[in-house]
Write a structure and sequence with these properties.
The chain is an alpha/beta fold. 39% of the residues lie in helices and 21% in strands. It is globular.
Length: 284
Amino acid sequence: MSEELPIILVKDVDYTYPNRTVALKHINLNIYKGELIGIMGMNGAGKTTLIRTLNGLIRPLKGNVYIDGENIKAKNIGTTSKKVGIIFQNPYHQVFSNTVEEEIKFSLKSLNLSKEEIQNRTNDVLNRFNLKKYKERSPLNLSGGETKKLALASIFCRDPEILVFDEPTLGQDAKEIDFFVNLINKEKDRGKTIIIVTHNIEFAIEYIPRTILMAGGRIVADGLTPAVLTNKFLVDTSSLVLPQIRQLNIALNEMGIQCPEDINSKSEMTHFLTNYLKNKSTKV
């Protein structure tokens, strides 16, 4: 990994908003092709500002961002967005065409495709996201979940190398979260680099291998998700809460039940408790 060039390199980046809010302080970050990364922290930690620097929506006041080895400082947003697709937290900020089908076609216009290619990609993505039946409907008349799918579809149709999601599980039910998990797993299998900004600590510890923790515009931790999110000092520093599995683990140990600290999933905890109860009933 150390000999491989990162697909995303953020070097000494600072950013302050016009109202003098300091959002990013000396950010240094390497992300490699095919990684699935989580970015976590309280509101105002700098998470959304950081991802906006990745496709040029925000230009750092100091430092540089490199995508696939190229400094994006002089590149326009249209060029960078071909490689970096960002799906924002509020899908209504991302859709504006008269119909669902037109929304997809508009997203494809800058890729210099033929009309036939645009139509084929549009049909494919409408089918993939189960939106074909809504293709003549206004995006404003879709449900929240369907609008989120349309925002996803309008980025996925461009097939960018890097996919960035801002709070994708917020307000989603279990079925919609399952759809999203299947989606990112398929993209990861295709070698895509995926970044997920989330407050959902249970989702992160179950699905995201590496987590970047932010607080006060700085990166305070970067490592394997179980190690980062079960560290009480780091979690407290970032104003988050320990995962429920970790809280149960601590409670069991306080009760005198020696529960291994490396249990981080529901299935592992279920297995441990099942065996514990079996052994206890056998002894009785």
